[in-house]
Amino acid sequence: MYVPRTIELSLLRGLSLLVVTLFFTGCGGLQSAISPAGPQANHISKLWWLMFYISAAVFILVMIFLFLAIARGQGRPFGDTSQYNTPQLSPAIEEERKKYNVVVSATALTVVILFVFLLESFFVGRGLTAELSRKQGVVIEVTGHQWWWEVRYLNVDASSIFTTANEIHIPVGVPVRISLKANDVVHSFWVPNLSGKKDLIPGKLSTIWLQADKSGVYRGQCAEYCGHQHAHMALWVFADPADQFSAWLQSQIQSSIQPANESQKRGQQVFLASACVMCHTISGTPAGSNIGPNLTHLASRNTIAAATMENTRDHLLQWVTDSQQIKPGNRMPPNSLSPEDLQALLDYLQSLK
Amino acid sequence: MCDPKLPAIPTILYQRTSASWLDHSIQNRGAVATGSYAQHSTPAFLGRVVSFLFVQLSVSETTRSLPLPGSVLSGPENGPIVARLSFDAASSLSPHIKGQTRKTSEYWVFFLLLFCASLPLTSCKREQRQFEPPPPNPNPVISMSELRPGAQAPETPIKNPSEQNAYSVSEGKRLYTSYNCSGCHFNGGGGIGPALMDEKWIYGSEPANVYATIVEGRPNGMPSFRHKISDYQVWEITAYVRSLSGQLSKAVSPGRNDDMNAHKSEQASEEKKPQASGVPKSAEQP
Cα distance from A202 to chain B (closest Cα, Å)? Predict the structure, then answer.
């Protein structure tokens, strides 16, 4: 084991480690505003880079002038404040004029830069909505709950409307209109690779447009503090090719799969006879409450608990028995089921493809 | 109180310089981590921080105005404005101090600030949130035996664990809508089911009566929620149902509604004296 000889050495090591890690924070492509995957995110990323370059230039200029000033004061003895004690009441006019010009031009430059930012961000804001608002594509309704996302695919044909949770599938190259609602408190929908943030406000319907030009998986996150488990309120966006998307859509429209064996049948009975049925929906069964996530096709999802955990049998077991250990304060009560009932329930839940 | 030598204040001053207060608080936090500390340790810790700041403010000001021989700290002339203001206000407001020496008033300010610092501690348990609910009792104390129309309270009243806590009651309010109690009882005014915000209680107004009503169900439509609603949630709903008619203290009743409904909050509802009432006319069997 490495034992640091001096405090300074370990401090240096820690500091350099921190600096190195800082370089990596911007590299993740899964949830990053500067690796855009669609036209909206592209606009935002361009604005970001413009602001970055101008701010960096301003910073470097300020630093240069600061060090120049320091260098000029080098000759003076430290703590010499004699020049401040006798204020110069009649400075040379030439000198004054020079200083005046510097201050005025610096102020003018600042105003110009701010106007460039203002105009650019105005046009980016217009570009986010104007382009796609007239095109018809997929319409999705996303409702924020403490602490998960309800995702509802709307359709003119009422039998094709279905609800899922925490995972959004969209076709590549097709504009998607997402209507945002909230059930309890203010949340914010943010998938950095695809678009900017938009708040979900109770009692108000807001809309965000996005489009993915590259197929892939993008992570989203609630971006407005909404309570204890705000940090564990994430979602995944799957941008699939058109045929893959329509296959997924067809499978999700179906009612739940009926239990195939004895264990799954018992699991369904356990589900319907215990506290599960008070909050969750499984279409095709009497369970139809809308308080918790819709579980009709639970096994087809990759994660559970708002992208907190991978969807495995072990994680499901932990979640069903005592979810408060995993996400303290979440709305799901602990369940004490007999081991046989629990295994049957897990069999049933895992069969819900 | 009237000792002009002020022996206590320099002691506190030394405590600050030796950081013994800090050591003490760290020990407390260690105890919290190991779980041996009492439930209300976090508010107590916060209260300690607040009182510490208050005391420091008052003490640093008093020591500055006193020519203490051998004083360790000789701070700058301009003390914190808050301390100076409170000090001046206190010494000018109390008439019996005016004529006396300044040193007595310094004691007065010290105890006043200590008192103020302890005030925030009084309402600590109101918002205590316990995310890990206690395991349900395998042998329920509430008798589930026979139907008893009329308001008989059980011999030993059972305390509802949720009735002292504002968070639990507000959770009860949320569950009241989530579990569709409002489907029949509406917002307490009743409709399909009996009203919950009046003084009439068909099956008793005690927490145990309400608990039994939810768990067992009642004739003429009230379903049983046994095994459907967790034990602790039944207690939360019970607490909320009782808050509808003002049976709970105003400190824990929900103060507002999250929706646009125009009805009054539970906190604002006047307390109704529970009365035994038989089955209402509408619910009588023909």
Answer: 9
Task: Find the closest chain A residue to B258 by CA distance.
Answer: A184
Phi, psi for B100 (deg, rounded to 5): -85, -175
CA of A252 vs chain B CAs: smallest distance (Å): 26
Express each pLDDT in B36-60 by its tens digit.
333 445 556 666 666 666 556 555 4
B181: chain A residues, CB-CB within 8 Å: none
This prediction has a pTM of 0.71
Question: Which residues from A are below 8 Å from B135, CB to CB?
Answer: 336
By CA distance, what is B132's nearest residue in A? A324
Q: What's the complex ipTM?
A: 0.78
Work out the end-to-end distance of chain A between its first and last CA atoms, rounded to an integer number of angstroms: 49
Chain A with chain B: Cβ pairs closer than 8 A: 35
What does the alpha-carbon distance between residue B38 and residue B42 come to, in Å, rounded to a whole number? 9
Choose the weakest-confidence range: A250-254, B25-29, B184-188, B245-249.
B25-29
Q: Which helix (H) or strand (E) holds B166?
A: helix B166-178
Closest CA–CA distance from residue A186 to any residue of chain B (Å): 12
CA-CA distances (angstroms) from residue B73 to A139, A293, A335, B109?
69, 62, 60, 21
List pLDDT tens digits, range A278-331. 999 999 999 989 899 999 999 999 999 899 999 999 999 999 999 989 999 899
**What is the torsional sign of CA B8, B10, B16, B17?**
negative
A271: nearest CA in chain B?
B228
Mind listing the pLDDT tens digit for each residue in A230-261?
999 999 999 999 999 999 999 999 999 999 99
The answer to whether the peptide bond before residue A149 is cis (omega within 30 degrees of 0) is no
Up-side HSE of residue A3: CA atoms within 13 Å toward CB? 1
Name the token pair of A297.
């096709």
Residues of A in contact with B229 (CB under 8 A): 275, 278
Rounded to an integer, what distance in angstroms lies between the CA atom of residue A182 and that of residue A150?
10
**Cα–Cα distance measured from residue B133 to residue B53, given in angstroms and rounded to the nearest whole number:** 35
Which chain A residues have a beta carbon less than 8 Å from that of B260?
203
Q: How confident is the model at residue B75 (pLDDT cuts 50, 70, 90)?
A: very low
Question: Nearest CB to A328: which of B131, B135, B229?
Answer: B131
Decide if A288 touches B, using CB distance below 8 A: no
Angstrom distance (rounded) from CA B154 to CA B141: 11
Contact B229 A278 (CB under 8 A): yes
